[in-house]
Design brief:
By secondary structure, the chain is mainly alpha-helical. About 75% of the residues lie in helices and about 0% in strands.
Length: about 200
């Protein structure tokens, strides 16, 4: 992916890859992951089928590439969570709201990614690796809260961080796919889980 500050004229390969992703995005909006046909994607992009496979192993990998900009949303949510200048409950709530805002903005893409990770072990590993990349920051936040006397001692912070991020993964999936509980209810429950797990009480 090119840097947004790169002032060079886009190379032909950049344009070709971008055309493929634009076409894939178009077809995902229309028919979802299962309904996407590589031939339709390449036809709209004006490239050959072999060109598609030059850039992407399969359509699951191409969906993952479409989601690359959304990783920035994850960093934003992590920064909110680890800002210890704010009280625990408001920053945890803000982190959760930021995650669900991402779903509201990119629901069709996240639906496709959920299908892609079920279809491809490689994409599942990519998704899991992205989630685990946030474990050190969350664990460090918990350590700081324990050291400051705001959170009780407990299991290893890396374990707690990993499990809470797994919980967020499930929250994103449930909100993406829909269910009987609305956004506010999901946020209320998730907030209680996070606050109670880290601080041992829910009135922080």
């Amino acid at each position: 992916m090119r840097s947004p500050t790169d002032r060079r004229a886009p190379q032909k390969s950049d344009l070709r890859r971008g055309a493929i992703l634009e076409s894939l995005d178009h077809h995902l909006r229309l028919s979802g992951f299962e309904g996407v046909n590589i031939a339709d994607v390449t036809r709209r992009a004006g490239v050959t089928r072999s060109a598609f496979y030059f850039y992407f192993e399969n359509k699951a990998a191409a969906v993952a590439a479409l989601l690359e900009p959304m990783y920035l949303d994850g960093f934003i949510a992590s920064d909110i969570l680890t800002d210890l200048t704010r009280p625990p409950r408001p920053r945890i709530r803000a982190m959760l709201e930021a995650l669900l805002d991402t779903v509201d903005e990119h629901r069709y893409l996240l639906r496709a990614m959920l299908d892609a990770r079920a279809d491809s072990p490689a994409i599942r590993r990519l998704w899991d690796d992205a989630r685990r990349s946030f474990v050190p920051a969350v664990a460090a936040m918990i350590v700081a809260e324990r050291d400051g006397g705001r959170a009780p001692d407990g299991p290893p912070t890396e374990v707690i961080a990993d499990m809470l991020l797994e919980f967020n993964d499930r929250l994103l999936e449930r909100y993406t796919l829909g269910g009987p509980r609305d956004r506010e209810t999901l946020c209320d429950g998730a907030e209680a889980v996070w606050v109670g797990t880290i601080y041992g009480r829910v009135d922080q």
